[in-house]
Amino acid sequence: AFAQVSVTIDAAKPGPVINKAVYGQFAEHLGTGIYEGMWVGPESKIPNTKGWRNDVVGALKELHVPLVRWPGGCFADEYHWRDGIGPRDKRPVKVNTNWGNVTENNAVGTHEFFDLAELLGAEVYINGNLGTGSVQEMSEWIEYMTSPSKSTLAELRRKNGREQPWKVDYFAVGNEMWGCGGNMKPDHYADLYKNVTTFLRAPKEYRPQIIASGGHTDDVKWADVLTREVKNDMAGVSFHYYTIPTGKWEGKGAATGFPESQWFSTMQNTLRMDKFIRANKAVMDKNDPQKKVGLFVDEWGTWYDVEPGTNAGFLYQQNSLRDAVVAALNFNIFHQHADRVRMTNIAQMVNVLQAMILTDKDKMLLTPTYHAFRMYVPFQDATSLPVAVKNNGKYSVGNASVPQVSASAARGKDGKLYVALVNTDPNKATDVTVNVGGAGAGKLTGQLLTATAMDAHNTFAQPEAVKPTAFNAQASGGKLTVKLPAKSVVVAAVE
Ligand code: AHR
């Protein structure tokens, strides 16, 4: 007979805490990610608070957004913070050379960003400019934001409306230094990093955790060199990896209307994240056995061909059930590496790449990815628990296959035990037995996200085509069996 898939949670062996920052967001000056999507300005007819859309902020609050990374991305290495302070109508107008060569009027700057963070109750992650900036410029930005003194810069902050220093939770020295940040080698960057951090002075209570810009995909040199060369002042090394269905930058694949072969390759390519994290951890464990430095996956998500007829520089794409499954698979991987992966940021929050929210003028919709983030909220700051999956099925296309079920479990801050289950197979449902510490479990209460079509998605005409539904299972004969539908995500409390 066919052995049933079983998931066994070892509640007696708590692992590391899943830092809430693993559920971080990323908002870059890119396309309509900030302008239109979130920022409409205080004069707009669209209801807003200090220029930020009430509808979008309200929906994001439900995700308990722990932190937001800003202002880029590639944009960060051409961003000069002084352009974004003072009266908005006097700010210089620039060209966003990375993203569509559109004008950037600098309406959103440091003060506006901190307003957004405050509205969301989120921590801030500011990405500094090493590419076209200077040590002095970064050092002065930190002084402007965090100095309680009467220095000219601190007084300028007060004149611009902020009396108290801000706490800058995280600050990164450049972005993608191997590419858009300056096409450097890691050794060169390691020296620049030490140079910059020497001069990032802030009072202890306002001082950011500093992040070094690291590698991507299968390149572990950055994590290796940085953890070897930099001995202090580095909370984390960043790492970027995007899921591209075809694996090729030219012809990435469409967000909807794709063939099953691309559903499959999307699953396959997403699961590579685990291998990349392991490879980075291996070099970090050698250089930093005490695990002082985190691996911050500060860009991840699906990257498709842009929607037909939209600006290629705006990275606007639809978001389907497939994206929700991708998000859940990544979460389950991140949880497993909670010892090092202490922050991640999905790219990006609104209207860009794998977004939570899409907007069209005054309308907005919540994407399937939004729903996955919402379902996983109990995992923020939860204590990870070991999970063993036995008799796992295989989802195969041709000669290749991926595991059918992905599972993760944690003890939430509320004391409850949570389990997350993902079925990667778009055609076959499966039964999964859930055991806790070998003893079995009585019932499971939570939510299910699935749909009939692989590319089911929400539109402005039908904004609720994909949304979670209540999901329960009850033990019978001492056995808790979950009927996990094809292409689905379940997050539930187990009692
Ligand atoms: O998220 C879009 C872009 O992808 C970022 O600006 C850059 O860091 C990466 O290449």
Automatic annotation (TrEMBL):
Keyword line: Carbohydrate metabolism, Glycosidase, Hydrolase, Signal
EC number(s) recorded for this UniProt protein: 3.2.1.55
Annotated Gene3D superfamilies: Glycosidases, Golgi alpha-mannosidase II
Domain Alpha-L-arabinofuranosidase C-terminal: 298-488
Residues annotated as transmembrane: none
Pfam families per UniProt: Alpha-L-AF_C (PF06964), ASD1_dom (PF22848)
The keyword Protein transport appears for this protein: no
Reaction equations catalysed: Hydrolysis of terminal non-reducing alpha-L-arabinofuranoside residues in alpha-L-arabinosides
An example Gene Ontology molecular-function term: alpha-L-arabinofuranosidase activity
InterPro entries: Alpha-L-AF_C (IPR010720), ASD1_cat (IPR055235), GH (IPR017853), Glyco_hydro_b (IPR013780)
Uppermost EC category: hydrolase
Gene Ontology biological-process entries: L-arabinose metabolic process; polysaccharide catabolic process
Family to which the UniProt record says this protein belongs: Belongs to the glycosyl hydrolase 51 family.
Quaternary data: Homohexamer; trimer of dimers.
Protein name, entry field: non-reducing end alpha-L-arabinofuranosidase
Source organism (scientific name): Pseudoduganella flava
